[in-house]
Amino acid sequence: MPLFGPPNVEKLKAKRNIKGLIKALPYEKDSRVPQDAAEALGEIGDPRAVEPLLAALRDAARRVSFGLFSEAEGMLSTTTKALGRMGAPAVEPLIAALEDEEQRVHSAAVEA
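^ that's the sequence the OP posted. Answer follows.
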């Protein structure tokens, strides 16, 4: 029996624990955890989450491109929406993401 389970995103969100939610973004054992964390970060809107969300978006885009796992599509969509909700703090990083060589990153930046 494991001592630690998946991050409890609802508790992290309720406490507005940005660092904890950011740490949950790369969680791989349950695909809902990173998606829920990205969604929570978008709702909270803390500027510290912009770069980690962009990193998660890039990772998901590359996974989709390489066909590594189907959950990547959901994460790509969730991070795109979260970045769109971030508002002004995400504008400059999203503009920079337009130059990304990965077409899905570029498209997500436009959508966000």
